[in-house]
Amino acid sequence: RRFGKMKVSARNALSCGVMMATLSLAAAVMVDSPEKGVKRLYVGLVVWAFGWAFLDAFTIGANDVANAFANAVGSKTITHRQACMIACVGEFIGVVALGKTVMDTVRKKMVNVSYFDQDPYILALGMSCVNLGSGGWVLCATLLCMPVSTTHAVVGAILGIGVAAWGIDGVKWDYDGGFLGVVASWFISPVLAAVLAAVFYLTIKYLVLVYPDEEALKRGLLYLPLYFFLAFGIVAGFMMLKGIPSLKNTPYSTTVPITIAIGIFFAILGAIFVVPWLRRTIQDKENLPYYTMFYHWSVPQGSYGYYELEGTTTKQDDVKAQAGHATPSTDSMMPSMPGMMNSGAPMMPPAPGAMPTMPMMAPGMPMQANGMPMQMYPMQPPVGVMGGAFGSYSKGEISVIGQNMGILKPVEHFPEDPFYVTIGKYIAPGMWMDIGELRPEDMEMHSKALQAAPQTEEMFKLLQLTTCLFFSISHGANDIANALAPLATVWLVFTSGDIAKKAAVPTWLLVYGAFALDVGLVTMGHYIMSALGNRLTLQSPSRGFCIEMGAMFTVMVFSRLGVPVSTTHCMTGATTGVGLCNGDLGAVNWRLLAVIFGGWLVTCPAAGCVTGLLFWGIAAAPSPTPGNGFFTGVYHGSA
Hints:
Largest sheet: 2 strands, antiparallel
Strand order of the largest sheet: 1-6
Structural class: mainly alpha
Number of helices: 18
């Protein structure tokens, strides 16, 4: 009987064990939220998401887009205003015409989307916080003149969401498609871009630039079709493998022949149209408009007149001087291609508006190997180095955040300015700045760089402008997804009440992102253009052309291999590599480079911490009791 009681107790224990196991399994099963499948909930969340997505796209324009044109502006190939106009058009085309109509709901798939299947509106909340966290960090970095990767800011923000929601296991940490691959790209992509850009520049340097002026010009015109082949071949490959999303999976058997054919085609066009036009424009000094390159053979010799270099005479003046009617004039300087490049500035002009106007030479500045004179710098008051304390500004000047860090100077404001100019100076001060101007504190660094003749550098302006234009189009087609993918997720959840790994993006949403991106470029793009211009190393059209070629080739190769890379990192690495080609470590601003690299390292953790804490605080916060009238404008209780 006692045995029987013991037997009954064992049965009871077994039943209790089975019951507890069942309850444990039941507790481990995910439960669908009652909101799943319900459309158009939380209108305030959608409004919140649209606002922060605008901020994210705005900062992408201010930071990332400026990278594509920083070298062109720094080398005086185009002005800041021209760069903004071209980039706005290129980015808009890239976003709307070539942009992804289907995007990953979680950019780079750092977090498993299926974890949120039961709570789609929690995912929508998290993605809105991603835009806030990444956009806020990139805005801070832009104000500090630090070019950072907006892609990595978004990745860091998504990591913060994953850790806050699911802990360490909520994030993919492996190399293949995970966070370790992003960390590796911090080092791999800039180094490879530096090596490739250095190879391109050293080839041009020793084939063309180191020769005396006339010989360098002849050799440059001889090799120009080859540069056209390389430039447009790399651009074609870049657009097919990275720039146009729908062509990324095209097999090599198709892309390689097409790339080579496009390169050969443009090399032939360059030899037929561009080289003869440049020979007449640069070598013979004819003042031909750029559009005459397409029918230059039918333009009579000298029909557009001649221009003159400082200290030299034109053919027209020589004829007049021999007849005793005129003496050679030395008042004007060599103009660039009308309508395409900046208006007649020499490659390294003194900064306009400097005070006072008496020039100053760097003590002990060496003469160039090709006989070019030393660069003349205007006398200016000393400017602090990057990272210095903020200071005051004079009356009549508009303050710009970061101006006293040695990157930007304030914009002068005059009472006689029209009201629209005054407003413009506050909204877009970069339009009235000399972006990329040469600073006295950088003259020792610049004196260690090779300075080729302006006539020789003129040949590379068209190539440089072409590469940065296509770089801009590609950027608009791809990197706008950093801002729009989280917003597309919110919109998908709002309109369907569910989630999917891919989110269809309406065209109007692409237009919204493109507009925000262009606004960011126009109003704040001058910060990064100044930092990556002549402050990191001396820029020139030949250097800028090689920098963009090296960066594009690196992004193209690694995108095909599936390794995550940042165009910002590639551009900075390529700029450093070209600067080292001067054969002197002093030709690169290592202090500025260290600050930039520090920004890369901080980007992911900073965006992740801010976003994770924000998401945790909002998602875990108390919610109003339904029926009590919160957010409806009607109080249901007694007064």
